[in-house]
Amino acid sequence: MKITGTTLRQHRQTLGLSQAKLAEIADIPQHMLSAFELEKADLPMHVLNAVSNALANSEKVTAVVKRAKRYRDHKYAEVQKLPERVAKATRTNENAVYTQALKNIYSAHSSAQEKPLSALSLFSGCGGFSLGFSAAGFLVKGFLELEDDLRKIYKLNFPNSVEIGSDITGITQESLASAAKTLGGIDVIIGGPPCQGFSLSGKRDVSDPRNELFKHYLRFVDVFRPKFAVLENVRLLTSMKNREGGFVKDDICNEFTKHGYRIEYFEVNAKDYGVPQHRERVLFVAVRDDVCVIPSLPNFTHGDGGDMFSSLSPLRTFADACSDLPYIESGEKSNLPLHEAVKHPMHVIDWLWDVPQGFSAHDNKDPSKRPPSGYNTTYKRQVWNEPASTVQTTFGMISGCRNVHPIATRSLTIREAARLQSFPDEYLFSGSLGSVRTGIGNAVPPLLAYNIALHLKKFL
Predict the structure, then answer these.
(1) Residue 83 within any structural domain of the chain
(2) In this structure, is residue 358 part of a structural domain?
(3) Residues with Cβ < 8 Å from 356, sequence gap 6 or more?
(4) Which of 102, 157, 405, 414 has the highest CB neighbour count under 10 A?
């Protein structure tokens, strides 16, 4: 019998086995299981075999299901700031170059000089995509964002951008026509609907907010008829399937073609454009049929240095982004806004205290110093002199995926995450810390957006 996402989920639930525990005993990432059970992606055969073997081991399944959670009293104490650790956090030469580049982006964005080109931002978040385009000389005339706290952050930084609305599914054709009249011509539409917004095939109601967000995006394209449209999303989108078994990426391309656009998609990593972070994404670049331009992205600006004849700059590192920030430990504050560490329980500090860079507390030889659950991407230190791991919305959780500072024993601060995402220190954040973390973790890195915008600008 063929295993499908639905049958796997049903069987797992019959056994009383959580998705996390199945991932643990099969020794596979939970996100792969999640995508498979939602039927968004297939599992490679070796992973399917690992899942089947894990489920067939009834003794192990029973033991994991019956395993009680290990609770600990959360005790807190001041963490010692060791001089030898502080000494490791030395400032790199590239740090000054990088922080100045971010200042330049903010200065260009906030410049009073006239910006001859125009953009419209959909699914704007806290404004990373918009910041890059604004710095490249695009006036972001209007924006649309669902989350109230993120809209407030956006308006702080783009006070002259017209708020078209919040929920894209609630924008009527009359409202769209009115917005077009107010804003005038638009050269580029930017944005990235959430992953679940790309279920396009089949006969479905265009007003269904759960799976038709992309068609609402296309309504804006039809009304404004921009020369370019750029969509950003997680790389997983390229392997997502619709309910009919086809690939979502092909749906997107086919829909744009029907609406009068040539389109190509590109798998990219933000580190190749000077962002000090591994961040794999897919970018769709659509060009209106009457514009004589082939959809493309700019050439890489940074590389790993393997080719001595390469003109690329070296990849930027965690240290290049953050080595000028004050060294702080768990629960400690600095004199810089948003550079404040979450306070972690002492048993977690103990697990991680001697863990080397690039390793997890799950790798500890002493079983008593291993976390009771999870896998070796959690409770894991980053590496000081390498590009950071992907900044996610959970970067403040020390138990999350690669969220531990390379040298200090704590999770990342908001200021560090913003630097790794290439937000200038001058960029304004407001609202709850949770909302700020969500906005930063979901943002398009402004430096990546800036490179894309400069590339498109050549054709405009």
Answers:
(1) no
(2) no
(3) 381
(4) 405
Task: Assess whether 263 and 194 both reside in one domain.
Answer: yes
| Residues 59 and 134 reside in one and the same domain | no
Q: What are phi and psi of 78, to 5 degrees?
A: -70, 135
Q: What is the domain count for the chain? A: 2
The answer to whether position 377 is within a domain reads: no
Kindly indicate the confidence band of residue 202, based on its pLDDT and cuts at 50, 70 and 90: very low
The partner residues of 139 in beta bridges, in order of sequence, read 118
Residue carrying the six token digits 């385009």 = 133
Q: In which domain, by residue range, is 238 found?
A: 114-314
**For the purposes of burial, counting CB atoms within 10 Å of the CB of 282, is it exposed (0-12), middle (13-18) or buried (19 or more)?**
buried
Tokens 């978040």 correspond to: 125
Q: If you ran DSSP here, which 8-state letter would residue 313 be given?
A: E
Same domain, 140 and 50: no
* 162-198 per-position pLDDT tens digit: 999 999 999 999 999 999 999 999 999 999 888 766 6
Residues whose CB is less than 8 angstroms from the CB of residue 342 and which lie 6 or more positions away in sequence, other chains included: 330, 331, 396, 398, 410, 411
Q: Are 168 and 144 in contact (CB under 8 A)?
A: yes
Active site residues: 195
